[in-house]
Amino acid sequence: MSYQIRRWVSHVDEVVHDGHEPSGLPLVKAAVGVVFVNPYAGRRDKDLSALIDPSPWLGRELGRRAQALLGGRPIESFGKGGVAGLAGEQEHAVACVTSLFGDALRESVGGGLAWISSVTKVAAAGVSIDIPLAHKDALYVRSHYDAVTLTVPDGPKPDEILICAAVSTGGRVHERSGGPTAVNLVGDGLR
After folding, report:
1. Binned average pLDDT, 10 residues per bin, the chain of 191 residues
2. Which residue of 43, 87, 156, 169 sits 20 to 30 Å from the alpha carbon of 136, by its own alpha carbon?
3. Residue 190 is assigned to a structural domain of this protein
4. What total number of domains does the chain contain?
């Protein structure tokens, strides 16, 4: 691990109902983020390996921490994201969440066949990031399209990056928009 970490943040959201009767077990969504120094802040460099190469460690650690926030409940959905501070580029956040990071995240949360939804951007400290969620084994399972919002009040600073991962225990509470369902998975990562 070679990131110069300043802080870890986490958020847990337990949804009992969404304007209707409670639907049984609550939906639990959790997000974990880490803020660290961007070694490329203020300069342009073609080689982003200082962010890419250690990213498997980051994926595993964010996944481990996010899973722990669910208190032993199984994970059905996941997502990832990043924010580069104003002295950085969006590509700096993207470099941290490539497939090396994604594969390690997937492994740390018990697998998953689907592509991991993601979002990246450049912004000032205190920005909120909506980390997209999708079913971990079937991207087209519409009931699991959701998000978790994470905010770091003092980050990322201009020369920092915030990288985050989110997980959930199921689909949206009271979902009824149709489409493929989690109980009828084909197992190809899409359906």
Report:
1. 92 87 86 98 95 97 97 96 98 97 96 94 97 93 94 97 97 79 66 54
2. 156
3. no
4. 1
